[in-house]
Design a protein that fits this description.
Number of strands: 5
Number of helices: 10
Strand order of the largest sheet: 2-1-3-4-5
Order of helices and strands: EHEHEHHEEHHHHHH
Shape: elongated
Strand content: 5-15%
Radius of gyration: 19 Å
Length: 198
């Protein structure tokens, strides 16, 4: 842990994939500190036992099988296929070769099941716990992340299309977000939307 924050390691020689996954993980679990390593040797040189989870490329797991077998519950193997026959048995696997929305959904499902909705994690910083959005903005956000378009939201809430567009802009501005994926993470993590509805 760093300053009371659990640490997660990404071990993958693909720098671009590591940086992308790091960004997504920091959105899904803002309480976590995420470090990236290009090799197992780099991880070992940086107190490998300090990490709560290892998100690891399959080839790294295969080359260092004993270490990851000993840390099986903390290891998530990054795979390129959804086919369960091509995944390592006995390990949690995460297919990273899917659209962003699917990857985020998988990570949110994993976080909710492994940490019982965050109950096993330290509390979120006070800033992240504050209610930033109005009740109407929360309603609009919930419908956005469920995949409804502006017209459908307007019809569902019985408000004008221009009002929906204004709410949408205000939501993104208040939260400092630029994508529906980031909004989805925020909505699920704060309990505004059930993950099974996205």
């Amino acid at each position: 842990m760093t300053n009371g924050r659990p640490k997660v390691a990404i071990i993958d020689p693909n720098t671009l994939a590591s940086l992308g996954l790091k960004q997504i993980l920091q959105n899904v679990m803002p309480i976590m500190t995420v470090d990236t390593f290009g090799s197992f040797a780099e991880l070992e040189a940086n107190h490998s036992d300090d990490y709560a989870h290892y998100f690891t490329a399959m080839n790294i797991v295969l080359e260092n099988r004993q270490f990851f077998a000993d840390h099986r519950q903390k290891t998530i193997v990054l795979t390129l296929s959804l086919d369960t026959t091509s995944q390592l048995s006995g390990f949690h696997c995460l297919c990273i070769n899917v659209p962003e929305k699917d990857l985020i959904r998988s990570l949110l499902m994993m976080q909710q099941h492994a940490h019982h909705g965050g109950k096993n994690l330290p509390p979120m910083p006070q800033m992240l716990q504050q209610k930033i959005l109005s009740d109407r903005e929360i309603e609009v956000m919930a419908l956005i992340v469920q995949g409804l378009i502006n017209k459908e939201i307007a019809d569902r809430l019985n408000i004008g299309l221009a009002t929906v567009i204004t709410h949408r802009k205000n939501i993104m501005d208040k939260l400092g977000m630029r994508s529906v994926s980031a909004l989805t993470i925020y909505a699920v993590m704060h309990g505004y939307v059930d993950i099974n509805k996205i």
